[in-house]
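Subgroup meeting minutes
Present: P.N., E.W., G.H.
Scribe: E.W.

1. P.N. recapped why we're keeping a running log of single-chain structure predictions: easier to compare across weeks, and new members can see raw inputs and outputs side by side.
2. G.H. added today's entry (197 aa).
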Amino acid sequence: MTKIAVLVLAAGKSSRMKSIKQLEKVNKKTLLDITLEKAKQLKTKDIYCVLGANADKIQKEITSKNTNFIINKNFDKGLSSSIVSGLYHFKKNNLNFDGVFILLADQPAIETSYLKDIINLFHKNGTKIIASNYDGFFGVPALFPATYFSSLLEINGDKGAKEFLEKNQKNIVNPTLKTNLIDIDTKQDLDIFKSLK
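Output recorded in log:
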């Protein structure tokens, strides 16, 4: 039985949003809850969420149950630091997984069927990275096999995962399904997304 941990990255201070982005709501649900609820549909009990800026406030307002929170004290060092803090948590606590599935808290348009497709691809290609194709570069949602964990612990900066995927593109398989990979970074992004709902 393949053991996959879902790691939801939600540690940023959302400076472009000028509010706590993780708690912005779409149809009365916070952006973070939307992502965590999708994670819960992936048939894994191992759901982790990395928090950093405003961690206490976010934890109090999140309604999704059975989520393990990891606090990233280095969240101002970019997205990579959240991936590193998640993997370090697994290592420190002797949690062994065959893969880690990285999701962002600000991509509410991604369908659960797309995420399930990534997991299915991983079951068929256990040694490959399954990553999303952004027309020219690869990004998250992405599922990394355990063989990459030690290399991922060394990434840094805000583009760490992107550069890591670029270096390993020969070992990447793309999902066959299409989805809306929009990131919600600003109030304008949020308003546009809500208007499409």
